[in-house]
C-alpha cells in the first residue's frame, strides 16, 4: 500500500538501466557501486531487488518501466533548507550583485514578512518549494524553522513543516529578533527556558547560526545543549562568513553536521576528520553571496565525510536544485563528479543519520531517479539542463 494515498501500488521493475548508482561498493564498480545494464525492483515502498538485468527474479513485478539504457541513481537527499518563510529578498540580491556585501542581519527582513503571514500562506509557500525540489530529483528534504524567532512563530513554522517533511529542525538561534535588539543573552535565555520546551516535540534537530553578527560560541553552545537535553540532535551553521568556532563546537557536541564550512583552518579540518560530524557544503549560498567556496579538496583528502545541500532560503541561496549544486561542486570546488553525486545522496543521508535513503540496496526506501542521460556524470557535464526525467518516491512514480 502507498502510505500517502492509501492505494495499492503494484511492484515495479525499473529495467534496462544503462548505469545505476547504488552507493554500495559491494554491488558494483567504484565507490558509487555502479552496476551496468541494471534493474531494480521497487515494491511496498522499498527496494526489493537490485542487480544486473540478466538476473531479474521471475514474476516479481506487475509494471515494467524500461529506461532504454539511461542512468539512474538514488533520489537526492537535501539535508539543509529553510522553507518556511514569506516574501523574498530580490532587492537585497540585486544590490549584492552590484557590490553590496551579505550580512546576517538581512534575515530580519524575512522574519518580519514571516511573522505577518498567515498560516495558509506559509503552508502554501512551503508546499511549493517541496514540490519544486522534488521535480529536480530531491526525494528527502530537511528544513529548518528560523524565520519566526518567537515561541509562537517558531512553533507554527515547525507545525507547518511536520506536514511536509519528516526532517524538521528548530533553528532557534538564527538572528536576534528586533524586540531583543542589543539583548542577545536575554534572547538566548528565552530560547532555552521557553522556546525549546515548547518546540522540541515538533522537531528532530536543533540548529544555531554560530557566526559574527549572529550568535557567539557560548550562546550557541548553550542553545545546542538545551536542545540536546530536550531530545534534539545538534546541527550547526558554522564558518560561513568568516573563520570562527562553529566547526569546533559542532565536533565538541557530536553534531550530526556542520554546514557551510567555507572558512576553515587546518585544525578545523583535522577536528572534522577525527569526528563523526558531517561537513555539509552549500555552494548555492557561496554562489549567490559572491562568497568564496569551501575547500572541499582539503576536507575530502583529510577523510571528512562531505554532504552537498541546496540551502534553499530567500537570502543567500534561493534555489532548490541539487543538480545545480553538483555542477558548482565539480566546477568551483574541485570535487569529482562521483564525489559530488555521492555527497548529494549518501552524504546527505549521513548528515541526517539515515541509512534507509541515499542508496539503492535491498531494504532501502524506493527513492530512485532516472536521468535523460547515459551516466550520472552528465549532472555536472550538462550544467543547467533539467536531466531528471522520472522520479520514484517510496516506490511511486511522481
Ligand atoms: O544558510 N546562514 C544562515 N542562514 C541562511 C541564510 C539566511 C538568510 O539570509 O535569510 C543560510 O545561508
Ligand atoms: Fe542555512
From TrEMBL:
<keyword id="KW-0369">Histidine metabolism</keyword>
<keyword id="KW-0862">Zinc</keyword>
<dbReference type="GO" id="GO:0050480">
    <property type="term" value="F:imidazolonepropionase activity"/>
</dbReference>
<feature type="binding site">
    <location>
        <position position="82"/>
    </location>
    <ligand>
        <name>Fe(3+)</name>
    </ligand>
</feature>
<feature type="binding site">
    <location>
        <position position="237"/>
    </location>
    <ligand>
        <name>Fe(3+)</name>
    </ligand>
</feature>
<feature type="binding site">
    <location>
        <position position="313"/>
    </location>
    <ligand>
        <name>N-formimidoyl-L-glutamate</name>
    </ligand>
</feature>
<dbReference type="InterPro" id="IPR005920">
    <property type="entry name" value="HutI"/>
</dbReference>
<feature type="binding site">
    <location>
        <position position="311"/>
    </location>
    <ligand>
        <name>Zn(2+)</name>
    </ligand>
</feature>
<dbReference type="InterPro" id="IPR006680">
    <property type="entry name" value="Amidohydro-rel"/>
</dbReference>
<comment type="pathway">
    <text>Amino-acid degradation; L-histidine degradation into L-glutamate; N-formimidoyl-L-glutamate from L-histidine: step 3/3.</text>
</comment>
<keyword id="KW-0378">Hydrolase</keyword>
<feature type="binding site">
    <location>
        <position position="237"/>
    </location>
    <ligand>
        <name>Zn(2+)</name>
    </ligand>
</feature>
<protein>
    <recommendedName>
        <fullName>Imidazolonepropionase</fullName>
        <ecNumber>3.5.2.7</ecNumber>
    </recommendedName>
</protein>
<keyword id="KW-0479">Metal-binding</keyword>
<feature type="binding site">
    <location>
        <position position="174"/>
    </location>
    <ligand>
        <name>4-imidazolone-5-propanoate</name>
    </ligand>
</feature>
<feature type="binding site">
    <location>
        <position position="80"/>
    </location>
    <ligand>
        <name>Fe(3+)</name>
    </ligand>
</feature>
<dbReference type="InterPro" id="IPR032466">
    <property type="entry name" value="Metal_Hydrolase"/>
</dbReference>
<feature type="binding site">
    <location>
        <position position="147"/>
    </location>
    <ligand>
        <name>4-imidazolone-5-propanoate</name>
    </ligand>
</feature>
<feature type="domain" description="Amidohydrolase-related">
    <location>
        <begin position="259"/>
        <end position="376"/>
    </location>
</feature>
<feature type="binding site">
    <location>
        <position position="80"/>
    </location>
    <ligand>
        <name>Zn(2+)</name>
    </ligand>
</feature>
<dbReference type="InterPro" id="IPR011059">
    <property type="entry name" value="Metal-dep_hydrolase_composite"/>
</dbReference>
<feature type="binding site">
    <location>
        <position position="147"/>
    </location>
    <ligand>
        <name>N-formimidoyl-L-glutamate</name>
    </ligand>
</feature>
<feature type="binding site">
    <location>
        <position position="89"/>
    </location>
    <ligand>
        <name>4-imidazolone-5-propanoate</name>
    </ligand>
</feature>
<feature type="binding site">
    <location>
        <position position="315"/>
    </location>
    <ligand>
        <name>N-formimidoyl-L-glutamate</name>
    </ligand>
</feature>
<feature type="binding site">
    <location>
        <position position="316"/>
    </location>
    <ligand>
        <name>4-imidazolone-5-propanoate</name>
    </ligand>
</feature>
<keyword id="KW-0408">Iron</keyword>
<dbReference type="Pfam" id="PF01979">
    <property type="entry name" value="Amidohydro_1"/>
</dbReference>
<feature type="binding site">
    <location>
        <position position="240"/>
    </location>
    <ligand>
        <name>4-imidazolone-5-propanoate</name>
    </ligand>
</feature>
<feature type="binding site">
    <location>
        <position position="82"/>
    </location>
    <ligand>
        <name>Zn(2+)</name>
    </ligand>
</feature>
<keyword id="KW-0963">Cytoplasm</keyword>
<comment type="function">
    <text>Catalyzes the hydrolytic cleavage of the carbon-nitrogen bond in imidazolone-5-propanoate to yield N-formimidoyl-L-glutamate. It is the third step in the universal histidine degradation pathway.</text>
</comment>
<feature type="binding site">
    <location>
        <position position="311"/>
    </location>
    <ligand>
        <name>Fe(3+)</name>
    </ligand>
</feature>
<comment type="similarity">
    <text>Belongs to the metallo-dependent hydrolases superfamily. HutI family.</text>
</comment>
